[in-house]
Amino acid sequence: MDIVLMGAPGAGKGTQAAKLEKELGLKHISTGDVLREEIASGSELGKRVAAIIDGGDLVSDELMVSILKNIVAGTDKGIIFDGFPRTVPQAQMLDDMLKQLGRKLGKAVAIELPEEAAVQRLSARKQCKLPSGEVKQIGPDFSLEECQKQGGEIFQRPDDTPGHIRHRFAVYHQQTEPVMRFYRQNGLYAEVNGDQDPQAVFEDLLAVLKK
Ligand code: AP5
Ligand code: MG
User: How far is the CA of 118 from the centre of ligand 1 (A)?
Assistant: First the structure.
């Protein structure tokens, strides 16, 4: 089953998608991570999108879908889409893409979190860049101490500054909230309360996905 995991910046999409990947044997695709990996690799594509992402705007629907197509076609596993679709046209293109590949979306679940709580989380969030170049998020599965032990470098995402966080929320309200209405209309929409500890959010997600 393919799943869309939605929610505002900082709602906990990445944290929960990683847990669901392990528990349900799905493939986690974070479009934000895919784009950040392109930037880190120094590719032409990465150079084109760096300023857009660091500033908190969205890359174009066509570019996003073309990047995603190859990744989706390359797996037989069920997929958790984290951070995609972010616009109604992306949601329509996802439908078409899945249909062409003989796949089907099972649910679109939004993690709900008050904006202030999300802003606090993002301002405090830290990343770890390991000597191999791999980036891990500091959290329950990878501690600050573990990062230091492995010789990693601790940093903040460039879009996690207060001004960029506010801009990401504005973009989210304007361009991504309509996607929730899109999924409500086709009966795939569900939501969970993200303002609880990560394990409680995870259990609520599992319950919603089993329905
Ligand atoms: P993306 O990387 O998707 O960023 P985002 O949507 O703003 O979401 P975040 O990754 O910041 O938050 P999250 O919900 O994953 O929360 P997390 O689990 O990390 O996108 C970045 C950019 O890429 C976009 O702005 C855009 O430019 C571009 N882009 C991406 N997709 C695109 C698309 N489809 N189209 C066009 N452009 C696209 O948690 C946050 C923090 O809270 C962490 O520190 C975590 O440890 C902590 N935390 C998590 N859960 C809890 C909890 N329950 N209690 C307490 N703390 C918690
Ligand atoms: Mg994320």
Answer: 10
Residue 128 token pair: 């770890």
* Cβ count near 101 (within 10 Å): 13
Q: Is the CB of 14 under 6 A from ligand 1?
A: yes
* The model's pTM: 0.96
- Only one residue has tokens 């929409």, namely 189
User: What gap in Å lies between CA 109 and CA 190, rounded to an integer?
Assistant: 5
Residues 183, 185, 187, 189: what is their CA dihedral angle, to the nearest 10 degrees? 30
The answer to whether 168 is a known catalytic residue is yes
Q: What is the pLDDT of residues 73-100, one digit of tens each?
A: 999 999 999 999 999 999 999 999 999 9
So what's the pLDDT on residue 140? 82
Bond prior to 178 in cis (omega within 30° of 0) = no
